[in-house]
Amino acid sequence: MNISAIQHSNSTTMQCVLHNRDITLKIHTGKDIQSVQCVFGDPHAWVKTEDDYRWDYTSLAMTKVAETLTHFIFQVTITPKNYRLKYHFILCDEQSCIQYGEDGFTPMNEEVGLWNNFFIPYVHPSMSVSSPSWVKDTIWYQIFPDRFNNGDSTNDPDVVVEWNSPDVNNRVSFGGDLKGIIDKLPYLNSLGINGIYLTPIFESPTAHKYDTIDYFTIDPWFGSLDDLKTLVNKAHDLGIKIMLDAVFNHTGRHFFAFEDVLKNKEASPYKDWFHITSFEPFEYETFASTKNMPKINMHNKEARDYFVSVATYWVKEADIDGWRFDVANEIDMAFLKEVHTQTRLIKPDIYLLGEIWHDATPWLNNEVFDGVMNYPTGRAILEFAQGSIDALAFTQRYMKTQHMVHPHILENMFTLLDSHDTPRLLHQLNHNVDAVKLALTLLFLSTGSICIYYGTETLLDGAHDPDNRRPMPWNQLNEDYVEFISTLSKIRKEFASMTSSQSFDFVFENDLLKLRFTKEPIECWINIQDRPTFVNVDDLITKTYIVTLPPKGVLITQV
């Protein structure tokens, strides 16, 4: 038995307390393991025997729920008696069985003893992840405001580039604004969008606005506070949530506090708001190596209080529904916890999202974020659609990402395929529109919250920043793909439980990879061969009777 592959710990990813105080336990094993039993009970519950007392326990078979590249994942959901739990595992391969607890492994002929168990001493309701219930049903649409739609030419800067100009960079304005977004709310509603994520809208000298000058002022290019309030109110009337971008890792070079430090150096009362490494010569820490983005020192109480007030101000003043935290993995954790506490006091169901591209376990709990930008799942989908990994590797990668977090948090992750920080989806998939369809279908069938970048629904192209920030081609919409996205949205909303965690599994059937949903009468079929194959089903996307499925072709059917 490969005992070195067996993994379990007292973490929220393996000890998952649910809302009803049940507990889902997970264990990772090597692929030699054929079965796992969980032996559990109240640590204080004993029954009398003829000679003595023994622990009163129950044994349940665990279900193999996933296969990754290196492991099987088994899980079981149990109701702890008296909300107390002690447990260990019995694992069996073809030849033998072994017991596994917190102290390690013991043979089957030995008593596990009092202590060689894992423990949850008491299951408090607060141990369950309390995330906003609305998030998992949200289809987000990310908007780069300057490039989406110009609804009010009176707030344009002195120089505005023609809307279809190829001169795309971060210094020029195309004139997009909040009024332009308001005007397009009916379009977004028809697309099935019920959440809008806006990149920064506060005063800044650039088009991207990630170098903020004034956190309490809407950038004049985009409009006013009243425009934001109107956007939020009209969006809410259509059932659409609004999430703003919180740039709290760094400011712009012309932010008032940093300008004071530039002028007064060591005499500035704001010198400790930043990470100044030398006053002569003047050196300071920045976002990446970008000198116009000095990094904020959130360990300083005055700086921390100021930015907490920014976070709460816009929730109170504009009734926004969420914050997306830029460069979230570099921000002081104590500050993030304080923002969580203070914004929740104003709006208990506010969505707090972190930009973290890697394993984000330390940030995903009841104290910091409800979810993070789920690039790992998106990368698995993209690489499969590109053909750089095969179907088996895809299923293994995908299922690994599904089990990296608590199931309630999985429902609040923000899964995406492209953004303002990546090349456009069409560009990443080498302009293969069939691959785009495959990737988007898998995205829309994914658990929890999902997001598309503005223009994806019309195959807007673009390489790396700034080319990925081209203006929305309103006069050249690809109506077929707009309808395709709209149909995917309708399917996702009609079969709503597919957004719940662990709602499907993968099945290989000859030339096909099938996503089989456990709670909905639908299936997704993907041709994983290099040749056409035949499937006799009714496709929910095209509403036609499918006979031939091309290579990497995809369809959704009703069982």
Quick take:
By secondary structure, the protein is α/β, with parallel strands linked by helices. Helix content is 23%, strand content 27%. The protein has 3 domains: 3-127, Immunoglobulin-like (Sandwich); 135-249 and 296-499, TIM Barrel; 504-558, Immunoglobulin-like, CATH 2.60.40.
SSE topology:
Layout: E1 15-17, E2 23-29, E3 35-41, E4 46-48, E5 53-55, E6 58-61, E7 63-67, E8 72-78, E9 85-92, E10 97-101, E11 104-107, E12 118-120, E13 139-143, H1 178-183, H2 185-191, E14 195-198, E15 202-203, E16 214-218, H3 225-237, E17 241-246, H4 256-264, E18 276-279, E19 282-284, E20 286-287, E21 290-294, H5 301-318, E22 322-325, H6 333-346, E23 351-354, E24 371-374, H7 375-386, H8 391-402, H9 407-410, E25 414-416, H10 425-428, H11 433-444, E26 449-453, H12 479-494, E27 504-509, E28 512-517, E29 522-527, E30 533-538, E31 545-549, E32 554-558
Parallel strand pairs: 13-14, 13-26, 14-17, 17-22, 22-23, 23-24, 24-25, 25-26
Antiparallel strand pairs: 1-2, 2-8, 3-6, 3-9, 4-5, 7-8, 9-10, 9-12, 10-11, 15-16, 18-19, 20-21, 27-28, 28-29, 29-32, 30-31
Describe the fold and architecture.
This protein is an alpha/beta fold and 559 residues long. The protein has three domains: 3-127, Immunoglobulins (Immunoglobulin-like, Sandwich); 135-249 and 296-499, Glycosidases (TIM Barrel, Alpha-Beta Barrel); 504-558, Immunoglobulin-like (Sandwich). The chain has an eight-stranded parallel β-barrel. Helix 6 links the parallel strand 22 and strand 23. The longest helix is centred in the middle third of the chain and has 18 residues, at 301-318. 45% of the residues are buried.
